[in-house]
Amino acid sequence: MELVGQDLRHYRIEAKLGAGGMGVVYRARDTHLDRFVAIKVLPAAMMVNSERRTRFVQEAKAASALSHPNIITIHDIDTAEFEGHSVDYIAMEYVQGKTLDQLIGRKGLRLTDVLKYASQVAGALAAAHAVGIVHRDLKPGNIMVTEQGAVKLLDFGLAKLTEPLEADVFAATESVKLDIAPQTEEGTIIGTVAYMSPEQAECHRVDQRSDIFSFGAVVYEMVTGRRAFSGDSKLSTLASILPKDPVPTGEQADRMPRELESIIARCLRKSPERRWQSMADVKIALDDLQDQIDSGKLEGAASAAAGPSTTARVFRWLWPALVLLALATGVYAGSRLFKTHPPSFERLSFRRGDVNSAKFASDGQTIVFSAQWDRDPSRIFSTRIGSRESSALNLPDARLLSISSSGEMAVLLGGSAPGTLARVPLAGGAPREILDNVRDADWAPSGDNLAIVRAVGRNYRIEFPIGHVLYESHGRPAQGSDVPPDSLRVSPKGNAIAFFNYDAEAGDFSVMMVDLHGHVRVLSRGWIAMEGLGWSPKGDEIWFGGARPGEDPALRAVSLDGAERVLMQSPVFVVLYDVARDGRVLVVSSNSRIGIAYMAPDAKEERDLSWLDTSRIFEISPDGKTILFNELSYGTGRNPAIYLRKTDGSPAVRLGDGAHPSLSPDGKWVLCKRKDAGKSELVILPTGAGDVRSLTTPGMDYESVEWFPDGKQVLFTGNEPGHSFRTYMQQVNGGKPVPVTAEGKSAARVSPDQTNAVIIASNKLSLQPLSGGESRAVADVEPGDSVLRWSEDGKFLYLLRREGAGSASIQRLNIASGKIELWRQLRQPDPVGVSFFSASITPDGRSYAYSFQRELTNLYLGTGLK
Fold it and tell me: pTM (2 decimals)?
């Protein structure tokens, strides 16, 4: 079947580039986008082979799941009819260059090229491994080097998604007997024999460590010009792989750093357990070696790296002379020659308040930011670098989200999220409303499209462009629903989006990335606090502010391979708002505290019952004499500390560690959930003398928890393995959990007569009978309303309503009529930087307590981060 000069859909085939066992590759022109692409098609003789067809499709799916500068980009996979036949094909990035097997000479490559290419390959494999993909056919022929020296990893035709299963699509292939024909003949075993790991050669299950072995074999060949394992047939080559170690690289290559020899040797260990366990670690080792060579710390390595270069030899002679010169001219001259400058910061805001967003304008000198000063609402301001003055833009109350390359702002009207997204020219003009229920947005580099996060029911969607869903976060009733994807940022190339995401099951935050195909990768996990995110100027890292349990806050970076590093340590929490093309940053230093305010019966003013610096109220006892709260910054692992404190102001008592605590009606017990290392528990702690008890059901993943009014049962929301979340009730003294709601629905707050619980969904409050059956709608509520408690007589419900910056209220809902009325206004005397967290009220409505966060920030321009 001759395809040159023909069309496959909108691809005009222009030339044949090569052929292999898995397909024929052509150069083609995409007539829709007017660009060259590479088209890989399955040869006609193999069309009837269902296994090869499956492997062919697997290549495209595996590769298209990856977005990495060193992995070939897959544009399309499709089937076209040609001369009465179905032609399966993949359209991919067209790369001009040579494969490594064409570049490696008889004496191998220069050390500089070895390290440059190996580091890029390691980064690509680390990215694949991070999403569960094993290449399984790594060899020099599958590594393309462009004319600019960039590496592109090809041919994921043998890749597979790693799964905890005993069988997969390749199981039949892995058990087939080895064809012992010459190596040039098409074989039946997956992979190229000379670069196979021992476990792959023996048809055992493989993981990422198999690729590490193959990588070692490739680098060995790059260094020496010879294969690590060879033979006259597949069988003899396997015989060399399984029992024998290759000749050490140091015996075959001159001037080889021992460090590189050690890296290769560790890759090629027979036992997977004794190899490097992570390709990301291999990349770090290679990069460290390159840094040592660049600094001249490795004796003899510079000449090996540079080969016959005169410049390298002169530099090695010049280096000692420079050191002597520095010593001879004193400390001052030495510091001038070798000093590294730490980051520096220039203050840009000077009023008391909270700067909640800041961006560079396209000229790089104008800074636009939104802030709440004193008692004013959030407004948008602009300033120039070097000026101490800022001016308010003539706009309604709003929060700045992003500025496009053409000078158009994306703003959130009213300043609170979710809200209405609008576009407005920086030069002036009225905002043009675009979309409701938006939480965040960022312009694409081209300035013609927006990426957004918006609420849809209890879920949150990342869309780019608007309307095209790339990622959907399924809200969980206790946590995930009120912690949506945050700090949305489009990459400098416009081909990926980075964001923070809260993992309700793990109880912490992650740095994540989604590409334009909707493929999501987790780059960094385990953060208890994350604030502000941006792409590095080159687009190869994501910079963010964060802290893990027990760590000090810092500005950090994570590469697209998952390698983390500290950009700058800080004694205070630093929030990153923007990164300019030249590496300058906009950050704020944050002075934040979460406190508790308490109102006693008939009191005229609230009392401060905060304990440490992150006191979040969960319940007040029915008599109003005790409060139960978490200290969010303290505890063990992902479980914050639980405290009980009398409202007379006496010292708080720490009961233990856990999340979402609930006080029993008699005040003697606290119910809470604990999570650690994927394990979820339901625990009862004594408030006085007594033993800790467990109500845990094996396999159950717990979310919100609370007591029944009689103290004999508990209500919790969670999910069993393989099922969506739902709400259950369970006897304290034992027994199995009994479902209360259907899957995908959650209920809370049991009525005094123990007949109903409350469901809030789609801005509607309903009552769910605990005996089963359909829920009954009672009233429409505002977005974000939450139920605090029933009244003593069961006729009313108290709701917490957040009303914007510095203000919230307790509303009372009449169950019979559905009427909602204001019951208590919650407002701090000093509202600057205040937002409300949670609240609790006594059944008679006479006492209440609430938690609020006060955050005061200053805006800075930072330079020198690298």
Answer: 0.56
